[in-house]
Amino acid sequence: MFQTIRIRLTAMLVLLYLILYLVSSTVIYALTSQLSIGNLDAILKETADPLAAQISATLDHGYFPEQFVSLTKTAAMYPKVTALVLRDATGGILASTNPKITKGFSFVARGSVSYTSQFNSITDSYFRVYTIRLTTLYHQTSGYLQIALDMNSIQAALSALRRVLFLVGAAGLFLASVSGFIMSRIFLRPAVRSFDQQQRFVADASHELRTPIATLQLHLEMIKARQDEPVSHRRPWIDGMEREVERLTRLTDHLLLLARADAKRVTAQPMKLNVLELVDEVWNASLLAASAKGLSLEMKPTLDEIYDAHLDGDDVAKAMSAYQIQADPERLEQVLTILLDNAIKYTACGSVRISIERERHGMIIAVSDTGIGIRKEQQPFVFDRFFRADQARSGSASGAGLGLSIAHEIVREHGGRLTMKSEHGVGTTFYVILPLTQRVKNRRKESLRQVIELNQRGRSL
């Protein structure tokens, strides 16, 4: 599909070049020709007008013009002129300075004056001929005077110009074809990448949806096969169906969120909130899952530590105000839940820790674990959709590989940055770096610049 589009784009670029070049080269050639021949015409007119006046006066007195009595003298008087021809009223030649040349001149009466470019087959040359009609005092035609200039040099120059324009046009056409093919590839690269991502996204989403649907179908068949049994006997399959429905709901919610993110329709609804209180809620909600796996879930600092360190009410309020930011509480809670769930899910033993640190321009929330970590070569892809690390990490827990992608989109929508540091076999730490205040979208770059310093510092934590 894209190959056809690429060929069409190249053809359009080549056609556009061809049209522009044809127009420009035609204009260049026409102007050059007009200027060159115009100079000849000026010389012809400058010579012919006074000469024609003298000849007309001579003819009016019944004498043959003395300019043509001595042709050698006449030719010497007009060195720029190639030939002079005097014709009678019918166009017959009365006299000429160069009979060999003038014999090949054509003659057609065209008003009082005319300019013609003629090819003389006898001398194999080009001439510019100026013809002026001679009249009597009673405005009757008494004859014609023709003056000719050699224009071989001009014709040679114009011929050379045509060759140059043709060669330049051919070379330009070749370069336009090659460059058009290359440029179309560059222009289409984002579209190809987007199309490939879309295809991969659809394929991965279909695969992820197929598994719970197949499980639901199996459970339905098991329930249908045991319709005569008590409900208690069919309870395991009913519970399994509930789990798969929840999984499907969560998966479709994730897919919808990512689709809206692609369409630039995911916007945070920032409000003033206390990060410490929000983290405490998520931490408490995750305690049961951590204890079920025998993991230690730590939070630093805790609300109790803040209250114990600041017994006075004003001091507590001042200490808590240090953790105030503007963010969407629902979205930020979703990010923290994803990070904590992943940390607990992929940690077999040890501890999971979440810490909050206030910096000058933002807040750093770090979620670290002592799990199996992520291999170095896989780390650049952790925020890609449907990406799951090696079998040791993904095989022990189910998931569609969308959580970190969603967290990354949410944090980015807040004008922040989600980064990570991991060592395989040691553990992983994710850093949520958020600005203290939300800026309007067209000033997000300024927010990102403000947290670059935090990002670099977060990597070294």
UniProtKB/TrEMBL annotation:
Record field: catalytic activity: ATP + protein L-histidine = ADP + protein N-phospho-L-histidine
Pfam families tied to this protein: HATPase_c (PF02518), HisKA (PF00512)
Secretion signal span: none
Origin: domain of life: Bacteria
The keyword Transferase is assigned to this record: yes
Membrane topology reported for the UniProt record: Multi-pass membrane protein
UniProt protein name: histidine kinase
Organism this protein belongs to: Ferroacidibacillus organovorans
